[in-house]
Design goal:
478 residues; alpha+beta
Length: 478
């Protein structure tokens, strides 16, 4: 029985664009705050999940297009449980946070700001409040455990923060190419805008500049070899130590100065906001008593629909679809002469936001959370199972020798025959009693055209210019 590497390559084509991730939304005490609300995201949905590579770039502060503030700053109490969510794609085409091949640590930073809607992020004042790396007990990285925790991690803000405005910065470092020369870690960075109250105001954390907190990708934390056996544990985190309200208050950067901001005056979400999409709020259309007024109202509605879609970016279209339904109803009323209007004037059109399961504050559990839900727009996931090889490749002739499933590393177990002295090829023969050339199973880790092909035993890969032999590695990245 023969099967081809070309068929195997096809299995992962759909995953190529889904290896990356982006910070899309957050929760307070398990309550969704709305997709993209108070979160800075890339203006281009096609690059929203792209990483940052240059550690000297201003994009290291808040990611792609992260220098541009958004209209809203969400109010948060220091007693709140703050949960952040990551997605493979803003529109949730997949339920993972990030591909399991993108292994590495997670960190969360804060920066005090006079005006988060205008603060470009880059510069001094950043301090770390959370980090989670490699868990030796479960042998998993924080990025892997995100997938078993509904794409989410939770933090508690330091109780001694000063009231006021902050940028909250999330950072995932994917280390799958960090062992290259030079190292090529991928930084997935995002920022949200907060108005924090309830702290004692005594915080004086060690602050760092971003960019600047990492001087070179050759530092231990960004050149860490996740393929070494054994790995050089414990993992050496990049950046400053984690600050919390119980740590010492010696400052190596700019300490926070005393400011009095008792009420929020910048970035408040309008009340009422009859429909909210990310950082946009709909306003009720003008009332009308005749057809001419009705068509003016309908035009106003359509203009707001365009603004909603612009604010949505790559996020799910659910909210904008609700508004478009309102516009269609008004248009039909105008055609039929159904006046006055608008119908249900001033009604709250926002879908109800029920609490969802979120992980507790601190390092993520390898066991995950039950029924995590989906941020108000889709369901979540627990432990992720890949589709069986046999069903995913029906008719391809691939023999499933790996227990019927992919594991978190996109690993396929299969048998490859390479006769002595042969350069191999794209066909491989399954073992049999008449085939003494191979008696062991070859394991190949596949992340085709994205990350890594690791080959053990006597195997050659000659496909799309990728070539690896014995225990060598071949890489392609997008």
């Amino acid at each position: 029985m023969f099967f081809t590497l070309q068929a195997l390559l096809g299995l992962f084509t759909a995953q190529v664009a889904l290896g990356h991730t982006t910070f899309t939304n957050f929760f307070l005490n398990g309550i969704p705050q709305g997709d993209g609300t108070c979160v800075r995201m890339s203006h281009n949905p096609g690059s929203a999940t792209d990483p940052v590579y240059d550690v000297t770039s201003s994009q290291m502060a808040c990611g792609l297009d992260g220098q541009d503030g958004v209209a809203f700053a969400c109010p948060v109490k220091v007693s709140d449980l703050v949960t952040v969510e990551f997605r493979h794609s803003p529109a949730l085409e997949t339920q993972d946070a990030i591909d399991d091949s993108h292994k590495g640590p997670c960190s969360v930073y804060l920066k005090k700001s006079d005006d988060p809607t205008k603060d470009q992020g880059a510069g001094n004042g950043w301090f770390k409040i959370f980090e989670d790396g490699y868990d030796e007990a479960s042998m998993t990285w924080c990025t892997e455990r995100l997938n078993t925790n509904g794409r989410r991690l939770s933090i508690k803000l330091p109780s001694d923060l000063e009231d006021g405005y902050y940028l909250l910065r999330t950072e995932l470092i994917a280390l799958h190419n960090a062992d290259q020369t030079p190292p090529a870690p991928q930084f997935y960075i995002g920022c949200s805008q907060l108005f924090v109250t309830g702290g004692s105001g005594t915080a004086s954390p060690p602050a760092v500049s971003i960019p600047g907190y990492i001087s070179s990708v050759s530092e231990p934390g960004t050149s860490f070899n996740i393929y070494a056996h054994p790995m050089a544990l414990p993992y050496p985190f990049s950046g400053p130590p984690v600050y919390n309200s119980t740590s010492s208050s010696s400052s190596t950067g700019n300490p926070l100065t005393s400011r009095d901001t008792p009420t929020q005056t910048i970035g408040s979400i309008p009340n009422p906001c009859i429909l909210k999409m990310a950082n946009w709020c709909a306003t009720e259309v003008p009332s009308y008593t005749d057809r001419n007024g009705c068509w003016r109202a309908q035009n106003n509605c359509e203009q707001q629909a365009q603004t909603c879609n612009a604010a949505k970016g790559g996020l799910p279209s659910t909210i904008c679809d609700i508004w478009q339904t309102k516009c269609t109803t008004i248009s039909n009323d105008c055609t039929d002469g159904t006046v006055p209007g608008p119908p249900n004037a001033g009604a709250d059109l926002n879908p109800p936001e029920a609490a969802v399961s979120v992980p507790p504050a601190g390092a993520l559990s390898a066991g995950g959370v039950a029924s995590p839900g989906g941020g108000g727009s889709s369901g979540g996931l627990g432990s992720q199972q890949r589709p069986p090889v046999s069903s995913a490749t029906s008719g391809s002739g691939i023999q499933d020798l790996g227990g019927g499933a992919y594991n978190g590393n996109n690993r396929v177990n299969f048998v490859e025959q390479t006769p002595s002295g042969s350069a191999g090829g794209t066909d491989a023969q399954a073992p049999s009693s008449s085939n003494p050339l191979l008696t062991t199973t070859t394991v190949i880790d596949w992340v085709i055209e994205t990350e890594l092909v690791t080959v053990t035993d006597h195997v050659w890969l000659m496909e799309r210019g990728v070539k690896a032999r014995a225990t060598g590695m071949a890489r392609r990245d997008v």
